[in-house]
Design goal:
Number of helices of chain B: 16
Strand order of the largest sheet of chain A: 2-1-3-4-5
Shape of chain A: globular
Strand order of the largest sheet of chain B: 10-14-15-13-12-11
CATH architecture of the largest domain in chain B: 2-Layer Sandwich
Largest sheet of chain A: 5 strands, parallel
Strand content of chain B: 15-25%
Distance between the termini of chain B: 108 Å
CATH topology of the largest domain in chain B: Heat Shock Protein 90
Oligomer: heterodimer
Radius of gyration of chain B: 30 Å
Number of strands of chain A: 5
CATH superfamily of the largest domain in chain B: Histidine kinase-like ATPase, C-terminal domain
Helix content of chain A: 40-55%
Shape of chain B: flat
């Protein structure tokens, strides 16, 4: 069973991701509302994959990435899920250590397709 | 002044005008092939005098060249009309060469090349051999620009080279733009103008100007290649007149639309098929006067040539009011060859004449039975990216309809392969090709991004995007072809690049629809079929607009 950490300040997104991830595979999902909570959750248990928003109060997604440290990022792939869709946002996210980028709004199929590729990549 | 110098002066004073006259007369011959025999005799006389003068002055190169030209001119005088025009090219080149001999600014090799060109034209009546071409190119190089003329003759190959060069120039310009432009959000690069302006201050303006000039240069080169079909029509008129004499059939030839202009390569390639079709119409279509009278037709056979343009195509119809071909006659011929035509439409039966084994002429005549058959004609037209159709009504006549692109539909492409498929990417949209590894590709939305020249490049596996269902297994290293669609750059990830190739773009079969991102089909390599891509309409080039909203969770 895969374990996911969903980091987003919107409970709507929590629900959407929950439904979509469950339809993707049998999985266990942990939720965090911002970067700081995500760091805490990470200390308790390292998931197989993180879905990360960028604009969040207390600690943004990019700050979170800078605090996680490279070794953790090498073990756990991160998909940024953000409304920030400009080229430089994508670059900033990938340079900060994310594995992939998904722009909101997205279709469920897009999320699944991206998961295929990221999980597939992580497996090799 | 020494004795030799005096003699040389006299020689030049006497000979140079003769050489100039030869050049002028040959050009006049090329413009119109009227009053031929007289004209050729004049040219031969002039060449003979030039040869003698050169011999006395021991100008061996001149003597040799003039001798070869004289021999060639005699051959041309006695040749059939449709072959004379082709023989003119090497002669005109050589006339320019003679001028250079007199000015003593020509090498022995160049003269030998010209002579080889003349000889080749004699052996190979197509006048198309390599040495003939080389000679022609050489002559242009030697002759240069003649002062005081408002028109300069340019060898057609030079014109072709111009077009190639201007194409390369456009590609270079785009590369320079891509490099000059700093990394920035995609929306600031909405247009080419935006690109230039956004470049760092000092370079923006010259770049924009360069773009403008390159664009105009390209258009001018394309325009310079346009020729009216008049030249060809003149040859055809003459041909009909000769045919009338040769066959004893009175003929009238009506032409419409001869002022239509087309790209030079198209005009050149149309000559052979039209000559053949007209010969065919006169020989097999038009009946002898007695038969015509018996059929209630006027003695004079009517051959018509209709030229018109439709969109980007030129249509040329060759019609005759001859006997036509009855279905019965075609079917009989088919049966003799073991083809069962029962249940065929008239149209399909008519198309039989394009079959290699098919010819309805009971006897091979002097005019038409020359080996160039309908299948070859059809293939020539198809190679030009066009089509040839045939309609006939027994007793009323026949019509051949040619439809070919006005401009050369030939595009230079980069041929790439993905799995077992091949694709041709128009070269003008390709910026460069580089190697990518799976590690350098990041998944973003439905596609991937990679970095290219310090910029983010959205990339897609070509095979996946064009309908191939299966996710392509990322090989260790693949190639990424960077293309621009006028709005942004993107990468096409392919297995291999097999190189550049000029292809004729054909429309897809309408049954297939028109998949997005595909401009047409082309034959590449040794007869393999490749899709020609249109980077402007590749499925992902719409950007964000292509992504809809999320489906409501159930």
């Amino acid at each position: 069973m895969l374990s996911f950490l969903v980091v987003d300040d919107s409970s709507f997104l929590h629900s959407i991701l929950k439904v979509s991830l469950r339809r993707y595979c049998d999985c266990q999902i942990t939720y965090a509302n911002n970067g700081a909570e995500a760091l805490e959750a990470l200390r308790e248990r390292e998931p197989d994959l993180i879905l990360l928003d960028v604009n969040m109060p207390v600690m943004s997604g990019l700050e979170f990435l800078s605090h996680v440290g490279e070794s953790a990022l090498e073990r756990v792939p991160v998909i940024i899920v953000s409304t920030e869709g400009e080229e430089e946002d994508v670059v900033r996210g990938l340079e900060a250590g994310a594995t992939a980028y998904l722009r909101k709004p997205f279709k469920e199929a897009e999320l699944h397709d991206l998961l295929d590729r990221v999980v597939g990549q992580a497996a090799t | 002044m020494s004795e030799h110098e005096e003699l040389w002066d006299a020689f030049i004073r006497d000979t140079a005008p003769l050489v100039a006259q030869v050049g002028e007369r040959l050009l006049a011959l090329e413009r119109s092939l009227e009053s031929l025999g007289e004209e050729w005799r004049e040219v031969m006389g002039l060449l003979h005098t030039i040869k003698g003068n050169c011999g006395m002055m021991q100008v061996e190169r001149g003597e040799e060249l003039a001798h070869s030209m004289e021999r060639r001119a005699r051959g041309a005088r006695d040749a059939p009309i449709w072959e004379q025009a082709r023989m003119l090219g090497p002669l005109i080149s050589s006339a320019a060469g003679l001028e250079d001999v007199l000015a003593d600014k020509v090498s022995g090799d160049a003269v030998q090349d010209l002579i080889a060109g003349l000889d080749a034209a004699e052996e190979d009546q197509d006048g198309d051999s390599t040495s003939a071409r080389r000679a022609a190119a050489q002559a242009v190089e030697l002759a240069g620009v003649q002062p005081g003329m408002s028109h300069v003759r340019i060898d057609a190959e030079v014109l072709d080279r111009f077009l190639e060069l201007v194409g390369e120039l456009v590609i270079c310009y785009r590369r320079v733009c891509a490099e000059a432009e700093p990394r920035q959000p995609a929306r600031a690069r909405d247009s080419r103008e935006g690109t230039a302006r956004a470049a760092d201050g000092g370079r923006a303006e010259p770049l924009e100007l360069l773009g403008k000039h390159v664009g105009e240069l390209r258009q001018r080169v394309l325009d310079a290649r346009l020729v009216p079909l008049q030249v060809l029509v003149t040859r055809l008129k003459r041909l009909v007149r000769d045919l009338a004499t040769a066959t004893g059939k009175p003929l009238s030839f009506r032409v419409e639309g001869e002022d239509t202009v087309v790209d030079k390569s198209i005009a050149d390639q149309l000559g052979e098929p039209l000559i053949h079709l007209i010969r065919n119409a006169v020989d097999h279509g038009i009946e002898a006067p007695s038969e015509r009278r018996a059929a209630g037709k006027p003695d004079t056979g009517q051959v018509e040539l209709h030229i018109s343009t439709v969109g980007a195509d030129v249509m040329v119809d060759v019609r005759d009011d001859g006997q036509g071909l009855s279905r019965k006659r075609l079917e009989a011929a088919a049966t003799k060859r073991g083809i069962d035509t029962s249940g065929w439409t008239d149209r399909r039966v008519e198309e039989l004449i394009f079959r290699p084994e098919f010819t309805t002429a009971e006897k091979v005549t002097r005019l038409s039975g020359r080996g160039v058959g309908m299948p070859q004609i059809k293939r020539t037209i198809e190679r030009m990216g066009g089509e040839l159709q045939f309609q006939t009504k027994a007793g009323l006549g026949s019509q051949f309809s040619i439809r070919v692109p006005l401009a050369a539909a030939i595009r230079r492409t980069l041929v790439v392969s993905c799995g077992s498929e091949e694709y041709a990417v128009p070269i003008e949209s390709v910026l460069e090709t580089f190697r990518v590894t799976p590690e350098s590709l990041y998944p973003v939305d439905r596609g991937w991004v990679t970095s290219w020249r310090e910029r983010v490049l959205p990339a897609q596996y070509l095979a996946t995007q064009l309908g191939g269902r299966d996710q392509v297994e990322a090989a260790d290293a693949q190639l990424c072809v960077v293309v621009e669609d006028g709005r942004r750059y993107s990468g096409l990830i392919v297995d291999d690049v097999s190189g550049q190739q000029d292809v004729v773009v054909r429309d897809l079969d309408p049954v297939l629809g028109r998949p997005r991102g595909v401009a047409g089909m082309a034959i590449v390599g040794e007869g393999r079929i490749a899709m020609v891509l249109d980077p402007r309409s590749l499925p992902w080039s719409e950007g964000r607009a292509a992504y809809g909203h999320m489906e409501a969770p159930a």
